[in-house]
Specification:
FAD/NAD(P)-binding domain; alpha/beta; elongated
């Protein structure tokens, strides 16, 4: 197995990882990105983005392609489609099916993924009526009817956000009361565009080219009904992509990596950026900002470490 050595290895090639790569490489350190998939991350699947500064409207794939081209300019080494077998953060060793990587610093940018409903039609209609980001896609549902699935703060707040665009927003919740904070609930109950469907779950999402119907089941009566909608927004939670590193560093109760303001984690020389860390907002722009901060301080760590070795 070929051994490869870098100053900085970035785990994940989404906006946080690519931004980190650009800043690290500009810091004159050897930099590599490793990803399970092609580079670009979740934004590559977004039809359009309207909230990334500098671009009034841009395709998600197109934006991530620009990120990648920028990283290429600075000679970042890219290793997409890697089957990662193990990650040891303390020794900073990553073993894939092709290589054994060794680094002096690691930047974790593996992101997070929405918890899925797991029903027929959900996967097929992603980007065509199924969305996990109201801020990203809400404007595409102007004068339309959408459904939000969930009963926590995120679901109710996103439902209220969607009323800026949609004519009608259904909130589908499996219980007969919300889990959201009382003040959030009160605002939603006062919003004339929001209608609550209690004790119900989504069993299937139907449509042709675009979503047209959410099939619901009442959990108490078992009655099946069809709800005509143009979009379905599941908000039942998100989970960080940390399977291979859980337990190796400090994480919060939900598994997100805890960092300080420099993106440093509890493991020396390891940083975490973007959606994988504990953060109040998960957007392309905040992920890119995280990547910049984490990479700058990873470079500073390398400089300090090098000076310490020189003194010794």
């Amino acid at each position: 197995m070929e051994q490869l050595n870098f100053d900085t290895i970035i785990l994940g090639g989404g906006p946080a990882g690519l931004s980190a790569a650009i800043y690290a490489a500009r810091g004159a350190v050897s930099t590599a990105i490793i990803d399970l998939n092609m580079l670009g991350g979740q934004p590559s699947n977004y039809l359009e983005l309207e909230n990334y500064p500098g671009f009034q409207v841009i395709g998600g794939f197109d934006l991530m392609e620009k990120f990648e081209e920028h990283a290429d300019k600075f000679g970042v080494h890219k290793y997409p489609m890697q089957e990662i077998q193990s990650i040891d953060l303390k020794s900073k060793t990553i073993i894939t099916n092709e290589h054994e990587f060794h680094a002096k610093t690691i930047i974790v940018a593996t992101g997070a993924q929405p918890m899925k409903l797991g029903v027929p039609g959900e996967k097929e209609f992603v980007g065509r009526g199924v969305s996990y980001c109201a801020v990203c896609d809400g404007a595409f549902y102007k004068n339309k009817v959408v459904a939000v699935v969930g009963g926590g703060n995120a679901a109710v707040e996103e439902a209220m956000y969607l009323t800026k665009f949609a004519d009608k927003v259904y909130v589908i919740h499996r219980r007969d009361e919300l889990r959201a904070d009382k003040i959030v609930q009160e605002r939603a109950f006062k919003n004339e565009k929001i209608e609550f469907i209690w004790d119900s779950v989504v069993k299937e999402i139907k449509g042709e080219n675009l979503v047209t119907t959410a099939v619901l089941e009442n959990v108490k009566t078992k009655e099946i009904s069809n709800l005509s909608v143009n979009g379905v927004f599941p908000y039942i939670g998100i989970t960080p992509n940390v399977e291979l590193i859980t337990g190796q560093l400090e994480q919060d109760a939900r598994g997100f990596i805890v960092t300080d303001d420099t993106m440093a984690t509890s493991v020396e020389g390891v940083f975490a950026v973007g959606d994988v860390r504990t953060t109040p907002l998960r957007q392309v722009i905040t992920a890119a900002a995280d990547g910049a901060v984490g990479a700058v301080y990873a470079v500073k760590y390398l400089e300090t470490h090098k000076e310490a070795e020189t003194v010794v």
